[in-house]
Amino acid sequence: MTMKRLLFLLATACLTTACATHKLEPPAGFAQVERDDYSTTMMAPDHVGLNVRVWDNVKGGSLSFWGEDLVNKLGARGYALRAQKPVESKNGVAGTRFDFGYTAPDGVEKFYSAVLFTSDDYRVVLQVAGNAELGPRYLTRLDSIAGETKVRGCKLVNSLCKSAQPGPLKTQAPPAQTEKGSETKTET
Amino acid sequence: MMTSSRPPAWIVLASVLVGLPACKKASPTMASAAYPDEAYGGAYDDDYGADGEYVEEMSMAAPESEPEPIVTATAAEPRRERGRLFGNRRDKSRAAEKKAKPGAVMASPAPQSPSTAEASPGDAQPQQADEQPPEADEGRHIIYTAGMRIAVFNLADAIETAESIPARHGGYVQSMSNSQVVLRIPSKNLRAVMTSLAGYGNVEQRWLNSQDVTAEYTDLESRLKALEKTHAQLLDLLGKARTVEEALKVREALDRVAAELEVLKGRLRQLDNMTTYSTLTLEFYERGPHTPTPSSNDPFPWVDGLGVENTEWK
Fold first, then answer.
1. Under DSSP, is residue A49 helix (H, G, I), strand (E, B) or coil?
2. Residues on A contacting B at a C-beta cutoff of 8 Å
3. B181-195 residue pLDDT tens
4. Rounded mean pLDDT of A119-144?
5. Is residue A3 part of a domain?
6. What is the residue range of A173's domain?
């Protein structure tokens, strides 16, 4: 009887929160706009967006593998990597924070930061973006926001949750960009 | 020879009424090609027999020297169609009978095909006009329906641009919503408009359908001509009606012809509009700034879901 009750409680807990792919309560100054199993979107009153996206991970999908993929592809879209540092989630999953600069097509400067976590089951990206002048206000809080994020899907043995940090990465200038391209070149 | 012991008007009416449905199917081109004069004359004779008086009366109304012999134009066309349906053997035998009756006006070779009736009497060219596919027929009637699905950075600007196209290229806006504009563009400008629109964004999809309605158009025109002649002849007959009953019958036939004429004209107008103006459906959708189209070669297109536009906007 006691065993049955224990299993029931475990199943209930799993169905409610414990088995979710990720968990992040809205930080101060953000309101949750939408949420499902694979994403959470929050917005600040000044239109700064905070967003968690989750994808299923694959075998060999380490932090360095996905970190390099992310930086290369964002670099191809005109994002300039400005800083890179290790972070850790609330439940101890290793992650890397990438800070980018970006100029929108209408010429507005943007800040954009992506924090990448990889577990055995998922790869999770916590990202924040807004107008460049608002960057300092939010970027200083990003480490603590990342530290409040729970990333699920870790296994006990040979876990990717503790995979090594990627080496120093660089963005390449996008192949056919004009103004943004020249700007990115100076960064790299 | 028959005498004038029976009133001819009801016979005329009956023949007109019998002839009407066949008018729909008659095509001048086909008729002129398939039915030479002898078959034509035979059909005429077949309708009215060798009723000399009747023929005389109608010939008076439209003497052979007139460009449009009324009876001929009215009755001959349906009869030609009947001749086509039942074969020419009967017509030929009637033609032979005609030759045996020199007194009958019907035996004269004057009646011409409907298209020839519009030409001057005795003119041999109309037959030629039917046989040649002249310059007037060189243009085909084609309905074009096209569409484009375009990814744009600014949806409002794109809609505004699309809305302004008729001002520059002609046509009009048929319908509009917040992401779709349906334009009616002069067909001759369709290609230019589609080319210029391709510059406003990423053309994700483009399609064009064409429907050739030349055959229907030609058929409608032929039927219209035939019915207009019938209409004119019926009007003439109405003026000659001797009794109220005759007048009513002619009137009834006139109403039917007029109604059918309107239907044909309406369809022709519709076809004209559809061929003159092409329908161009533009579907726009907004994409984030500089979001590239995911590469099909990328095994991990996940980063397409990242970036400023996916964080700040969505």
1. strand
2. 41, 47-51, 53, 55, 69-70, 73-74, 76-79, 102, 104-106, 110, 112, 114, 123, 125, 127-130, 180
3. 999 999 999 999 998
4. 94
5. no
6. 19-187
